[in-house]
């Protein structure tokens, strides 16, 4: 087990109109699919011995991709996954070069100067990401499903009494329906000690700071908790705990967990 690493991420979105997956705001949009068990392509095992936690990426910014790489995530096409090193059959570890100890050669310095002259910073500066949040879509939303009507009705009643402030706050619209997502391993929680990166321990009260997206409204789960029934609240908090263990507490307060 390697030392505990603190991920340094500026999860953000671009103001440009060119973005993947049909998303005009340049946000990162991924769907959590939970723990995955597959056959291993290295040892060619006959059973599901390769264990990882995965998400499908509809669109992904460079900064968010780098933040996931820093936490031990890997990519295969549009599928992002994090191997559980203590449980998978063939654990793989990233070999990294310490940036502070790197000494460029004469040829590398020459190439760097050519690149700096070719791409001046003032030219690319307007294209840099600015916003500090991205969108993480729930897997049920990706399947065209939404929250139960009871949750949306309770939220609309509270929304009439409480004012939400912020540039991204929009009132809730019409009701939709959602069934509980049914995946074979979706209830498995990610073990904080199942990978080479030591994840912070998540306490029960920490889910209140998770950023929730509901009908394009951005707010904390603690402000939305009373809109859920008792059974719905238990299900939601279970999903948020699994989500926080997957991406970490710091990113869970920046990435928008979309409910529809």
UniProtKB/TrEMBL annotation:
Keywords in alphabetical order: Transferase
Record-linked InterPro entries: Arg-tRNA-P_Trfase_1_euk (IPR017137), N-end_Aminoacyl_Trfase (IPR030700), N-end_Aminoacyl_Trfase_N (IPR007471)
Designated name of the protein: Arginyl-tRNA--protein transferase 1
Annotated Acidic residues bias: 175-194
Residue ranges constituting the N-end aminoacyl transferase N-terminal domain according to the UniProt record: 39-110
Pfam families: ATE_N
One GO MF term attached to the UniProt entry: arginyl-tRNA--protein transferase activity
Region (Disordered): 1-30, 175-201
Gene symbol of the encoding locus: LOC107773779
Lineage: Eukaryota, Viridiplantae, Streptophyta, Embryophyta, Tracheophyta
GO cellular component, one term: cytoplasm
GO biological process: proteasomal protein catabolic process
């Amino acid at each position: 087990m390697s030392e505990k690493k603190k991920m340094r991420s500026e999860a953000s979105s671009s103001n440009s109109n060119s973005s993947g997956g049909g998303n005009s705001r340049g946000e990162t949009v991924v769907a959590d699919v939970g723990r995955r068990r597959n056959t291993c392509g290295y040892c060619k095992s006959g059973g599901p011995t390769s264990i990882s936690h995965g998400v499908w990426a509809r669109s992904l910014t460079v900064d968010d991709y780098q933040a996931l790489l820093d936490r031990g995530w890997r990519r295969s096409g549009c599928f992002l996954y994090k191997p559980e090193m203590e449980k998978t059959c063939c654990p793989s570890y990233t070999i990294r070069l310490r940036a502070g100890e790197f000494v460029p050669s004469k040829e590398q310095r020459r190439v760097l100067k050519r690149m700096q002259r070719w791409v001046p910073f003032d030219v690319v500066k307007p294209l840099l990401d600015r916003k500090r949040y991205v969108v993480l879509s729930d897997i049920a939303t990706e399947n065209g499903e939404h929250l139960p009507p009871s949750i949306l009705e309770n939220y609309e009643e509270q929304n009439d009494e409480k004012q939400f402030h912020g540039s991204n706050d929009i009132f809730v619209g019409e009701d939709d329906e959602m069934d509980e997502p049914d995946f074979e391993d979706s209830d498995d929680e990610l073990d904080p000690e199942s990978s080479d990166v030591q994840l912070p321990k998540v306490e029960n009260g920490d889910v209140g700071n998770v950023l929730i997206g509901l009908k394009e409204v951005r707010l904390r789960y603690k402000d939305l908790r009373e809109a859920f029934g008792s059974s719905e609240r238990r299900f939601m908090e279970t999903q948020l705990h699994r989500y926080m263990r997957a991406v970490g507490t710091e990113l869970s307060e920046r990435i928008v967990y979309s409910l529809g």
